Amino acid sequence: MHAQPGSRGSQVPPPSVSPRVWPAVLIALAQLLASRGFGAVVSTNIQIGMVLGLIPLASALLLLVWWLAASRTPWRDRLAGTGLFIVALASAVGSQPTLALGALLLTLVLPACTLTLALTLVLTCRVAWPSRRWLLALALLLCAGVFCACRVDSIGGDLAPVVVWRWTATAGERSAASPLEETGEAAVLPSQLADGDWPAFRGPARDGCVSDPAATLSPGQPPRELWQHPVGPAWSSFAAVGDYLFTQEQHAGKELVTCYHAATGKRVWVNQVDARFEDSMGLGPRATPAYDRGRLYTQGCTGILQCLDASTGRTLWKRDLTQETGGRTPHYGFCSSPLVVGDLVIQTSSSSAGKSLLAFRRESGELAWAAGHGEAGYSSPHYAVLEGVPQILMVSSGGLQAFDAESGAPLWKHDWKVENFHRCIQPLVFGGNRVLLCATANVGSRLFQVSRKGTAWEVAEVWFSKAFRPYFNDGVYHKGFCYGFDGERLVCLDMKTGERRWEGPRYGGQLLLVPRSDMLLVLTEKGRAVYVPARPERFSEAASFQALGGKTWNHPVIARGKLYVRNAGTAACYELPAPPPAQP
Question: Where is the domain boundary, 120, 152, 184?
């Protein structure tokens, strides 16, 4: 007797599961192409942030819609898979010390998980669904597990997370493990500065222009490495005077001001202050020392302004900017580098109530005057002579203000408020009365002309352009053109019209101008030194070499025929080729 359909003895095989795979593959490919395509053309941090965040998020949401609505898998598997996906993402986010760092990691986890699931679906196309679903779950957990084994170390200039293995020593741990020995040496400094010295942030004129007569960049003659050694984390650059280098570093719970032999990189002396500052940008001080007449002026990240004997590192006087103004340490730390003008040391503060700009007596540290309104951000006070009048320019969240260099009396201002993103770069001054003021994100730049009639000042806009939106990468002026960064992309800007002449790669980092060679030296965010001709006709790379490894934000320095570079872990010196002999 045969069993009838529907009878108790019938054996009905379970329905086979054949997932609809092509939508998941299409979503993954679209994500990959969109990220690569948009990533190749965008420039600013806002645009890059959209590529980092919005494209992976949109892809993950589309993948979730496909899984729940059109995957043709059993509903219990759809719900269980959705829950597992959420758990995997939450595990990766929760593996980081803070929620903010976890959110940064998510910009990598989301696209990786989307691609992993699509690839696994394709590779297991011949596997029966009961086994296939477990392979999908395993692939997802392995992908999330890899990111749980990672640590977001900091953030890049493009707002992307800088990721290392979790067991890798942090910058602070590496610094604390290095010996901090007193040498008992003293620097023997020249009585006067020479043409090849680099005494302050961005050089003698603080404009990124190399006046050293011994400095040339020859594409056919690569520089020779003289030394390379570890340094404590900081985004400070070097001041170079005579045979010595001065910079700042972090060592455990102490901020250091250090002096090195320029020829060997050997430490001469160290000055220590009990202070420590760290945020998503990194660890340690961010300002560059300023040298003047045997003294060194330094700004710590928590607000400690010091005057040191440049020969020995002994503290001559010290001021705390938070106590001077009643303000607080900015969430990004004190970043601006001291400016020495005559017998005054001028510095920005975190206060905005008439104390944004402070001037201290060079010899005693006594407060001479206070002025200015608006949060100063990352920019440093800038000395300029406009219409024959020496003045101090202060870039702030509210625009640009100018003050008399001796008294601090306000001269003129240009109101241009920018919210959410602090201005970070220096104003670009040229032509005796023209100033370029920039803002990041999608804001743009303004060139204005400053004129004076008697005691009255007038500020007139020449042009406004969205073709130039620097973040924290300073530019230079050369023969009628500005060479700088639109976001992270190197561009040449016509200063008559505000139009781009050309655009280059997304280098990030910082640059110098070597007028003798008509050449830019770009130190990219990845530590590569690139020679770019400073010519408006077209962009080209004349030469390049790997100067450092790791994230590099510090400004490079060329002094006395040598190139000095550093980042948050390493410093190096390269000897440039000698300039050709002068023609008779």
Answer: 152
Cα 548 to Cα 172: distance, rounded to the nearest angstrom? 19
Q: What value does the mean pLDDT take over residues 228-237?
A: 95
If asked whether residues 333 and 210 sit together in one domain, one would say: yes
Segment 55-74 shows an average pLDDT of 93
Contact (CB, 8 A) for 263 and 243: yes
CA gap 337, 263 in Å, rounded: 25
Which CATH number is 539's domain given?
2.130.10.10
pLDDT category at 582 given cuts 50, 70, 90 is: low
User: Residue 454, class by beta-carbon neighbours within 10 Å (0-12 exposed, 13-18 middle, 19+ buried)?
Assistant: exposed
Which regions of 466-538 does DSSP assign to beta strands (E)? 476-478, 481-486, 489-494, 500-506, 510-514, 519-523, 528-533
Q: Which residues pair with 358 in a beta bridge?
A: 347, 370
Residue 515 has pLDDT above 80, yes or no: yes
User: Could you tell me if 484 and 471 are in contact, meaning their C-beta atoms sit under 8 angstroms apart?
Assistant: no
Q: Mean per-residue pLDDT for 313-331?
A: 91
Which of the two residues, 100 and 565, has the higher pLDDT score? Answer: 565
Q: Does residue 7 have a pLDDT over 80? A: no
- Per-residue b or e along 23-62, where b marks 16 or more CB atoms closer than 10 Å to that residue's CB: bbeebbeebbebbeeeeeebbbbbbbbebbbebbeebbeb
Which residues have a Cβ under 8 Å from the Cβ of 79 and sit 6 or more positions away?
none
The number of angstroms, rounded, from the C-alpha of 179 to the middle of its chain's C-alpha atoms is: 28
Query: Taking residues 131-157, what's their average pLDDT?
Result: 93
Q: Is the pLDDT of residue 374 over 90?
A: no
Between residues 574 and 176, the one the model is more confident about: 574
Helices (H), 332-440: none
Percent of the chain with pLDDT over 90: 74
518 Cβ contact list (under 8 Å, min separation 6) = 478, 533, 534, 535
Which among 97, 118, 152 is the end of a domain?
152
Domain assignment of residue 50, given as a range: 22-152
Phi and psi torsions of 409, nearest 5°: -65, 135
Q: Name the residue among 94, 104, 100, 99 with its Cα closest to residue 144.
A: 94
Q: Residue 311: what residue type?
A: S
